[in-house]
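Hi support team,

I've been running sequence recovery on a batch of backbones for a student project. Most finish fine, but this one hangs at about 90% for roughly twenty minutes before it completes. I'm not sure whether the input is malformed or the queue is just slow. I've pasted the structure tokens below so you can try to reproduce it. Let me know if you need the job ID as well.

Thanks,
M.K.
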């Protein structure tokens, strides 16, 4: 079987305007042809407070090993950026996703994040005085562009990942890469 190794780090969050402690929950998703042999398909970084440059460094390690029968459903990563305020409350600050690179080697991914916007005045007032944000009831919409275009969203910051992609035995199955 063809094998895919993903090694790297969930490096940092950049340009999130909130001054709360930020952390990231992540999930790797792949199609039915893919099997995860080792590593964890989901996890969470530690939390960190943004520095003066609006940057939170996590350097959270990633190490996954997939086998596959075909390239359909290539793995992708879904990100939920959360904050923790001084009262211990936690809420989602942004969503993002990225398909993992298909070429072997080292890659730096910059994943833009977004959040559903408050559309009514009462929602805006509630967010201002109580805090929190709108959250998605179904997270499938994060990676499906057709349904996401119906949402009113606000751009948030960027999540940076460093990944090293190692492919093994793909040429034996007729997959060429350059």
């Amino acid at each position: 079987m063809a094998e895919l190794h993903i090694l790297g780090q969930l490096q940092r969050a950049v340009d999130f305007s909130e001054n709360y402690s930020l952390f990231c929950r992540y999930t790797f998703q792949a199609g039915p042809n893919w099997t995860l042999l080792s590593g964890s398909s989901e996890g969470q970084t530690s939390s960190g407070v943004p520095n003066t440059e609006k940057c939170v460094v996590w350097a959270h390690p990633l190490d996954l090993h997939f086998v596959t029968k075909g390239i359909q459903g290539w793995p992708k990563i879904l990100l939920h950026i959360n904050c923790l305020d001084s009262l211990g409350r936690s809420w989602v600050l942004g969503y993002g996703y990225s398909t993992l690179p298909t070429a072997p080697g080292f890659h730096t991914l910059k994943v833009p994040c977004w959040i559903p916007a408050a559309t009514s005045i009462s929602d805006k007032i509630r967010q201002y005085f109580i805090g929190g944000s709108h959250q998605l009831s179904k997270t499938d919409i994060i990676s499906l562009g057709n349904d996401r275009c119906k949402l009113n969203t606000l751009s948030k910051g960027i999540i940076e990942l460093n990944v090293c992609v190692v492919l093994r035995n793909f040429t034996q199955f007729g997959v060429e890469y350059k």
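--
Follow-up from support: It reproduced on our side and the slowdown came from queue contention, not your input. Helices lie at 121-130, 145-148. No action needed from you.
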